[in-house]
Design goal:
This protein is α+β, with helices and mostly antiparallel strands and 487 residues long. The protein has six helices and 32 strands. The chain folds into three domains: 131 residues, Jelly Rolls (Sandwich), CATH 2.60.120.380; 83 residues, Sandwich (Immunoglobulin-like), CATH 2.60.40.1080; 202 residues, Rossmann fold, CATH 3.40.50. A hairpin with a 2-residue loop joins β27 and β28.
């Protein structure tokens, strides 16, 4: 939003749960000293879109004859709206805007994210787009219109548009599709005495910016101390402090999780240093991203899938060190950049430092998990273009780490000939497990990684299976499917 001298403007905006910042700059440089005033007030307009609504998961609910107002704030912004059609019928989408020069694309998608129809609005001309569909969830997406010659098309970032969904059949029910997008945990306070009990509130946050307490969430505790429980979980979502220390309260509901750290007693007196028991993960999306790497798309998908699986098993972002040559990722599905990549330079030396440096410095007594995904050869894994990790060198890094920390190590490799690593990495000196997607032959992958060892193995780990159990189930599932697509 551009504001001229001595001008006042307001910007209505609907926002979901989160932390937001306001940036004010001057086109006259940083030495421009005239003061300005800025204020934030509650907006009474319930029809505003709820940002960020950049993906179907976070789509703003829209219902029959209940209009929504939105605004595209940048070239990359896209606004999604969701609704539920109660029975087979025709529905109509009406688009209009106060802009005089903005160019828009309005599209309808089904619940599988398949585009059904689209229309273009040039110079913000009103648009009516309709479709006849079966019952189910549908989405409307509004974006800037772009074609091969995008220089001819404009984006009006100041102008609001209006969106309506309706039906010629007045008996048709079209309700807003309100999605649960995340959980948070609320406690009366962040610390408690030994023997004290507190109620844990698990809050669900929805795509319409509403919040509701979740009664059926499962609660778990991750103690930071080795050898003793700091907190116990009782009935009706109550927790009780047992000994001095730190613990994480974990909530799980419909595939979503939340985590909150609680201090019990005085952990500086009579308790061990703050540790975690679940461990750490080093994740490598290898191979590079040039056109010669035919696995780059599958590697990106599987690497992010593994990352999400470990998050779902109560790891935090700080517990994971992620090598990926692509920096931009949206791991939570809100369409926004998530800063999850720690290193975009997967070289052998940087990989070695992640084990003997980063992992060794972590305050954990849990396992160190290492997951490598991409091309492999006999006793070799391609970290990046012209950066190949040798099995013997890998063993040296693990030996150094385990001799200094005494922590268990679990190595998992999705690559051709990955089984050749086993005889190099195995040892009787340390607690070490090596899991590979194949033996010394080629591995196999299909559907961009959706049918692969890592897909099934990580899914079974997420369900709570042991390493051995997840491996056996993944192996049997691949064998039943008789996958023959070369990795």
């Amino acid at each position: 939003m551009i504001i001229d001298n001595n001008e006042s403007k307001s910007l209505p905006l609907g926002l979901g749960k989160g932390i937001y910042y306001i940036q004010v700059t001057s086109n006259k440089g940083t030495t421009y000293a005239d003061p300005y005033e800025i204020s934030i007030t509650d907006d009474a307009d319930p029809h505003l879109e709820i940002e960020p609504n950049n993906t179907p998961l976070y789509a703003t609910p829209i219902s029959k004859d209940y209009s929504r107002k939105g605004r595209l704030y940048s070239e990359r912004d896209q606004d999604w709206y969701g609704f539920y059609l109660s029975k087979q019928a025709r529905f109509d989408i009406y688009f209009s805007s106060v802009s005089t020069h903005g160019d828009y694309e309005i599209s309808i998608y089904d619940n599988n994210k398949k585009k059904l129809k689209e229309k273009i609005s040039i110079d913000a001309a009103p648009v009516n787009i309709w479709s006849y569909q079966n019952p189910g969830v549908y989405y409307v997406r509004v974006t800037k219109f772009m074609d091969a010659d995008d220089t001819k098309h404009d984006l009006d970032t100041d102008a609001f548009y209006t969106l309506n969904v309706t039906s010629v059949d007045e008996t048709i029910l079209i309700d807003g599709n309100n999605t649960l997008v995340c959980l948070t945990i609320s406690l009366p306070k962040d610390s408690m005495a030994i023997g004290e009990s507190m109620h844990v509130s698990v809050n669900g946050h929805y795509s319409d910016a509403s919040m509701m307490e979740i009664k059926g969430a499962s609660l778990f505790v991750l103690p930071f101390q080795a050898g003793e429980d700091v907190i116990s979980v009782g009935q009706n979502q109550y927790i009780k402090g047992l000994v001095s220390g730190y613990a994480s309260i974990l909530a799980s509901f419909k595939g979503l999780t939340a985590r909150k750290t609680v201090l019990v007693g005085n952990p500086d007196q009579g308790s061990s240093n703050m540790n975690n028991r679940h461990g750490n993960l080093i994740l490598v999306a290898g191979g590079g991203v040039d056109n010669h790497n035919i696995l780059k798309s599958a590697t990106q998908y599987l690497s992010n899938h593994v990352y999400s699986s470990f998050l779902g098993r109560f790891f935090s972002h700080d517990d994971i060190y992620y090598f990926n040559p692509i920096d931009w990722h949206d791991i939570d599905g809100d369409g926004m950049y998530d800063k999850i990549v720690d290193n975009v330079n997967p070289t052998v030396s940087e990989f070695a430092k992640s084990i003997t440096g980063w992992a060794q410095s972590q305050r954990s007594d849990g396992p160190l998990y290492i997951y490598l995904i991409d091309h492999g050869g006999i006793d070799s894994f391609q970290l990046y273009t012209n950066e190949n990790l040798a099995a013997d060198s890998f063993k040296d890094y693990l030996d150094i780490f385990q001799s200094q920390t005494g922590r268990p190590v679990v190595v998992m490799i999705e690559a051709c000939k990955s089984g050749s690593f086993v005889d190099n990495l195995k040892t009787d000196a340390y607690d070490r497990v090596v899991v590979t997607s194949t033996d010394e032959n080629d591995g196999y992958i299909h559907l961009n990684g959706n049918i692969s060892f890592t897909q099934f193995f990580s899914d079974y780990l997420f369900e709570g299976n042991s390493i051995e159990g997840a491996y056996e189930k993944a192996f049997k599932k691949l064998k039943r499917m008789e996958v023959h697509i070369l990795l």
